[in-house]
Amino acid sequence: MAYERVWHKSYAPGVPREIDFEKVTMPEVLSRTVKKYPDRVAFIYMGKRITFAQLGRMVNKFTNALLDLGVKEGDKVSLLLPNIPQVIIANYAVHYIGAVAVMNNPLYSERELAYQLGDSDTTACVTLDLLLPRIQKIQSSTKIKTIITCHISDYLPFPKKQLFPFVKKGMFRKIEKQEGEHEFLHLIAKYPDSPVENRAKWDDLATLIYTGGTTGVSKGAMLSHANVTSVAHLFSEWFPDLKGTEQNILGNYPVFHSAGYTICQNLMVWNGWCCTLVPRPEAGVIVEMLKSFKPTFLPGVPTIYSALLLNKEFREMDLSFIKGFFGGAAPLPEGTLNQMKELHGAIIYDAYGATENLAFATASPWGGKIKKGTVGVPLPCTDIEIVDLETGEKEMPAGEPGEICIKGPQVMSGYYKKPDETAKTLRDGWFYTGDIGFLDDEGYLTISDRKKDIIIAGGFNIYPQEIDEVLFRHQKISEACCIGIPDSYRGETVKAYIVLKPGMTLTVEEVKAYCKGELAPYKVPTQVEFVDQLPKSTIGKILRREVKEIERKKREGA
């Protein structure tokens, strides 16, 4: 019997319901694309255009370098890089070897990095040279033996490369190198571009992308080559009218994030498209990119669109060259949607997923019906079920909310070294997201709440218990509970409710300063309220839901 779901009726003509996945790995796809489209531009970096043929040669060079440095199959190689060419070159080189790419956020604090680099069993690290002192400081607590540094200016075109040191003097610091440390460009220059046999296998682990959880402990989602390639393949099928064409994606999503990993790297390689890399997606930079390179796809989280709408030049631009505007990470405010429609006639296609399924489970139908307030319908070969919150076993009827569960080829195999957490999240092939939502009678998904208490600020996932635990370690703090509160710019921001130890005093600014030393900037509470006590259960557990309710009543009364 043919695979049939109610949402298939909403697919655009030419979008398949099922896909017979070709069992190739992304390194093989890159080799294929290099042969097919050698002269097509693979990515643009601050004006420098790098073709697929050039990308292929650089990947070969770096692969040979890693092999000579002792990286072997199964080794974990951490990448701590923004959207610069090296992140794509390094990722594919790691895969060619059959090693595992561990994606890390370069904004993380020493504490956060020490945990992730240690937990992942990382033995080699590719990072910005600015972060080298941080890595050196925590190296003894990890298994790292090899560090490769690169600079944000390495691939700048002439004359920007020559001018960069004068413009960004603060980014150039003398760093004392140690044994086992190498420079990216030196390795690229030293090693040949002779092809290396691809050692990656379909069922092997390809990458670890870390996500948080209700426990506050980061977990490495184990994503196989089958997961990585399948999601690139199935998402490419979403655009049947664009097959064989040249497109340019504006790379606003960071590659270290699951959405950027899929869209700005692997989808590009699968389709032979170009990605214009954006290391830091600020409104002024994006406007210049739009003017200079005229990308056909503009992805963005709510904060990006909000910032762009405040930019006079963006508001007045002719954006007729853009074929698709894409949202993600959090629902776009209705006011933002209306302004984009009014100014640019923009229809924003939304999507939904999680790190555990490489960010894509549903999407608004390309060229099809868009339902405001929904995140579209499930992608090909992807199932969505809504189950009851009590048992997680009863399927809810259309329109009735419950926990969102996902099944498909993009779903991870589990969390690295965390079998108990895996068992809670994966059941009979279904990924229990912890998000609450409902399907309508046409299969469109609406997200209504979050079972996990996750806070999404500016497109970043923030897990409040992690911040709670940081605050608990402060010598003057007795109890803490962090929640998400509405923010007109970030969508949500963090507010901390704090109970001090008897006789202690602490200011809001002191709390923020302490958190800045322990957390990535986007996790630092923007609001702090000191209270005498926090609501608790009969066994003494702080009731975050009640704290949220207290905050809601305050806001309604304001």
What secondary-structure arrangement, pairings included, does this model have?
Blueprint: H1 26-36, E1 41-45, E2 48-51, H2 52-68, E3 76-80, H3 85-97, E4 100-103, H4 110-119, E5 122-128, H5 132-138, E6 146-150, H6 160-167, E7 181-183, H7 184-190, E8 205-211, E9 219-224, H8 225-236, E10 248-251, H9 258-271, E11 274-277, H10 283-293, E12 297-299, H11 302-309, H12 312-316, E13 324-326, H13 334-344, E14 348-349, E15 351-352, E16 362-363, E17 377-378, E18 383-387, E19 402-407, E20 414-415, H14 419-425, E21 426-427, E22 430-439, E23 445-450, E24 455-457, E25 460-462, H15 464-472, E26 477-487, E27 491-500, H16 508-516, E28 527-530, H17 544-557
Parallel strand pairs: 1-11, 3-4, 3-5, 4-8, 5-6, 6-7, 10-11, 12-13, 13-14, 27-28
Antiparallel strand pairs: 1-2, 8-9, 9-20, 15-16, 16-17, 18-19, 19-22, 21-22, 22-23, 24-25, 26-27
Helix pairs in contact: 1-2, 1-9, 2-3, 2-7, 4-5, 8-9, 10-11
Our count of helices gives 17
What is the radius of gyration?
23 Å
Terminal CA distance reads 58 Å
From the spread of the alpha carbons, the general shape counts as globular
| SS-based class | alpha/beta
Per DSSP E runs of 2 or more residues, the count of β-strands stands at: 28
Strand order of the largest sheet: 7-6-5-3-4-8-9-20
Predict the CATH topology of the domain at 51-200: Rossmann fold
Percentage of β-strand residues:
15-25%
CATH architecture of the domain at 51-200: 3-Layer(aba) Sandwich
Q: In the CATH hierarchy, what is the class of the domain at 51-200?
A: Alpha Beta
What does the main sheet amount to?
A: 8 strands, mixed
Model regions low in confidence, pLDDT < 50 over at least 5 residues: none
Helix percent reads 25-40%
Mean pLDDT: 91
